[in-house]
């Protein structure tokens, strides 16, 4: 993982710990359910930072005899655990607190203090979100800063490391939750009705459930061996077809083995009069050329079969592209 991605996790961890402490103080002083929901959100976020750091440290370990394709998938596992924490601690508890507040309303106090805490929390979260955006760009090999970070990172969000991507979703959700909680406190104070505070807590909880479920599913797909994007697979196949001695690309299968890292099994077609030694040399050259051209392909296995004089690759590429859609 890039240093920018790891820095984003550490920044988010420190920011969320500080924000959680402020929100807890505000919730205890005011009795606000939405503020308490925000504290649970930040507490879950801070806990998630520890999970994500564990995943980053383990995924950077070199392959060994036991894990011959490396430890990259550990980052998906710990991101999955973090998503479960968001679902339970952040989402479910916030919804429960909101319902309880609606059923048993209480007078809210120290509203100005809570608004000040929310304002300070927004500043912390924006700094953490900016670090996550920079980390996304770094994960994809781009050194970007300033106002260009937002559009560049959003373009590369799908290919960033799962841990950095999780921080992005987490911080985005936190900013939305802070706006909702602040608005609810102001409305509840103006109307002297804590109903809006309870509703805000439920809205925050539902948002956390949605994001937690989405990130959990995304990481589960990666853990269970999700294939590379069809666009990347087609680019690899088109490139291989241009190499000498390759008559056609028969089939490509792929599997994610880490953040932006894939295992590739490719079957190519060649002339039937090639010797075994020539086939071995061609296969090795194909492997080296693929991994040189596409750095995200970390492990490549090439098999050559006799050409059948049919353009298999065009049909195969169309099929996998349409299946993705």
Mean pLDDT: 84
Give the N-to-C terminal Cα separation. 29 Å
Broad structural category: mainly alpha
CATH H level, superfamily name of the largest domain:
Cation efflux protein transmembrane domain
Helical content band: 55-70%
Task: Describe the protein.
With 325 residues, the chain is mostly helical. The protein has two domains: 3-223, Up-down Bundle (Alpha-lytic protease prodomain-like); 230-324, Alpha-Beta Plaits. It contains ten helices and three strands, in the order H-H-H-H-H-H-H-H-E-E-H-E-H. The chain has helices at 3-30, 33-59, 74-103, 111-139, 149-155, 162-191, 195-223, 230-241, 276-293, 312-324; strands spanning 248-258, 261-270, 297-306. Strands 1-2-3 form a three-stranded mixed sheet. Strand 2, helix 9 and strand 3 form a beta-alpha-beta unit. It is elongated, with a radius of gyration of 25 Å. The two termini are 29 Å apart. The relative contact order is 0.13.
Outline the secondary-structure elements.
Elements: H1 3-30, H2 33-59, H3 74-103, H4 111-139, H5 149-155, H6 162-191, H7 195-223, H8 230-241, E1 248-258, E2 261-270, H9 276-293, E3 297-306, H10 312-324
Parallel strand pairs: 2-3
Antiparallel strand pairs: 1-2
Helix pairs in contact: 1-2, 1-4, 1-6, 2-3, 2-6, 2-7, 3-7, 4-5, 4-6, 6-7, 8-10
In short:
The protein is mainly alpha-helical. The protein is built from 10 helices and 3 strands; from the N terminus they run ααααααααββαβα.
Question: Keywords, please?
Answer:
elongated, Alpha-Beta Plaits, 325 residues, Alpha-lytic protease prodomain-like, 2 domains, 69% helix, mainly alpha, 10% strand, three-stranded mixed β-sheet
